[in-house]
């Protein structure tokens, strides 16, 4: 029995959004085929996600060194700990996000910032930082209107999330990308249909 964390970084309605359709289809088929697993959902636009800055840096530093936190720092730290606990206790992680302005929605960036805590998700060594979460698996579900392919330097969403997860030691990552449905509107429906088939297959396999 596994615990699976589902992270949704898009608050558009499913009928308007390809990545939300991917999220919902994955969730439905995953639950159908993994009835014994525990599913935890986090919808990032519904969360209070503090932005990384002085208060959070101080909150984390003071927590790590046993110093007294201010009221605001305690509040930030409790949010950090809640998300960190969910993230580190999951066996598998599913993240669904669109490509917006060449990168991830800012809520996903803010969320990943919460996870960068030495001793929790990585540790420093003489050879450089080493990830601590190498036992986890992840799947990334991404939709992007244009065609970028695997290696475009302008695609800073899938690459961005993968590098963060790699930094935490997570290397067992599969991706399903639906792309080009805006660039080629006449083929849009078939691009999405074909992509959704891959989402369902991946949900059953994951
Ligand atoms: C605010 C915004 C920014 C976007 N930026 C890009 C972009 O940089 N590159 C691109 O190919 N498509 C871009 N798109 C199109 C989305 O990638 C496309 O709608 C895709 O399906 C993901 O969004 P969705 O999951 O909500 O459908 C953008 C769409 C919106 C609404």
From TrEMBL:
Enzyme Commission number(s) from the entry: 1.6.5.-, 1.7.1.17
Binding site for FMN: 17-19
Keyword NAD: yes
GO molecular function terms attached to this record: electron transfer activity; FMN binding; oxidoreductase activity, acting on NAD(P)H as acceptor; oxidoreductase activity, acting on NAD(P)H, quinone or similar compound as acceptor
Cofactor(s) recorded in Swiss-Prot or TrEMBL: FMN
UniProt keyword annotation of Flavoprotein present: yes
Cofactor: binding details: Binds 1 FMN per subunit.
Catalytic activity: 2 a quinone + NADH + H(+) = 2 a 1,4-benzosemiquinone + NAD(+); N,N-dimethyl-1,4-phenylenediamine + anthranilate + 2 NAD(+) = 2-(4-dimethylaminophenyl)diazenylbenzoate + 2 NADH + 2 H(+)
This protein's UniProt keywords: Flavoprotein, FMN, NAD, Oxidoreductase
Residues in the signal sequence: none
Flavodoxin-like fold domain location: 3-198
Protein origin, superkingdom: Bacteria
NCBIfam families given in the database record: PRK13556.1
Subunit structure: Homodimer.
Family: Belongs to the azoreductase type 1 family.
Function: Also exhibits azoreductase activity. Catalyzes the reductive cleavage of the azo bond in aromatic azo compounds to the corresponding amines. Quinone reductase that provides resistance to thiol-specific stress caused by electrophilic quinones.
HAMAP family: Azoreductase_type1
Protein name: FMN dependent NADH:quinone oxidoreductase
Upper taxonomic lineage: Bacteria, Bacillati, Bacillota, Bacilli, Bacillales
